[in-house]
Amino acid sequence: MGNLKNRQSLIGSGMLLLAAIIWGCAFVAQSVAMDHIGPFSFGSLRFFMGALVLLPVILLRKKREIHAPTRPRDALLGGAVCGGLLFLASSAQQIGLMYTTVGKSGFITALYVVLVPLVGFVLFRRRVSPLLVVGALAAVVGLYLLCGENGFSVNHGDAYTLACAFLFAAQILAVDHFVTRVDGVLLSCLQFVMSGILNGITAWITEPSLSWQAVAATWLPLCYTGVLSSGVAYTLQILGQKRTPPAVASLLMSLESVFAVLAGAVILLQWPTPREAVGCAVMFAAVILAQVPTKSRT
User: Fold this and answer.
1) Which helix (H) or strand (E) is 197 found in, with range?
2) Distance between CA atoms of 134 and 118, rounded to whole angstroms?
3) How far apart are CA 22 and CA 93, in angstroms?
């Protein structure tokens, strides 16, 4: 029984690590896309693409009767809550980036690494092991080394980005809650639909009309973020969280910052500084610490 549990935990960790790699590389695609299309229009298109990618998977799983039993009410509620939080978190981050630097935004957003176990303890009295706390703090240090080159001074954008960190922590905990009641792939698809709708409404209100020329100019970033970053990676998040404690899951997913640095170096030739390289090493050490089994996690 213990070997099966360890195997499931390893599979879940692998899914979350792969999601972090995909998300890290997506920073390059998103950066290129912003030259041609607004953030809410881009978000709406990518999330709807992610939902469309998952539709045949859902139908195939249903035909083969390998999907988890789900009540329609739970599915709709889970999709609405998780999708709404996903939209709010990404929107708060985008607004914050209008007033603060990318480095500070990356560090403040990554505070969800600490907020997930903290909120889980406060709201649900979930036990947190000392090693996991050390790992979370080490992850914050690593992310500061990666992203905190310009230091700290609180401004308007920082407040929005701090709200983003809380919202991402809430989204992770919401997924952890609903994935026990809703089939993982279905939950992922429904949250994309909700986020796509909310992004589309916001884009219609705040952004210029979307042209086919703009869509054509961003077809490759859209395909990557829609199919891989949304359709595949967010589904890996949900399925991985089903096998992994939320605090550990948040640490693994925070590795997207490390892979963003690596993707920037390989694709855009933006090689990391010695400080950033140390940050990568600290982040990997933090994940290893968080994976060490203790009595409080058995």
Assistant:
1) helix 184-206
2) 13
3) 19
What type of residue sits at position 36?
A: H
What's the rounded Cα separation, in Å, for the pair 227 and 129?
Answer: 36
pLDDT at 296: 42
Q: Measured in whole angstroms, how far is the alpha carbon of residue 262 from the centre of its chain?
A: 18
Which value, to the nearest 10 degrees, does the dihedral of the CA atoms of residues 223, 194, 179, 185 take? -40
Cα dist. 173→81, 85, 121, 126 in Å?
11, 10, 11, 12
Q: Extract the tokens encoding 97.
A: 């980036």
Q: In terms of residues, how long is the chain? A: 298
Contact 15, 7 (CB under 8 A): no
Confidence (pLDDT) at 148: 58
Q: Which two tokens stand for residue 251?
A: 């640490």
DSSP 60-113: HHHHTT-SPP--HHHHHHHHHHHHHHHHHHHHHHHHHTTTS-HHHHHHHHTTHH
Strand, helix or coil for residue 270:
coil
48's enclosing H/E stretch is helix 39-63
CA distance 144 to 182: 36
pTM over 0.90: no
Cβ neighbours for 98, distance < 8 A, ≥ 6 positions apart: 157
Average pLDDT for runs of 10 along the chain of length 298 = 68 88 81 80 88 85 68 89 92 75 66 75 72 77 68 66 86 85 85 94 86 83 87 81 76 76 74 74 73 50
What's the confidence (pLDDT) of residue 183?
83
8 A C-beta contact, residue 94 and residue 39? yes
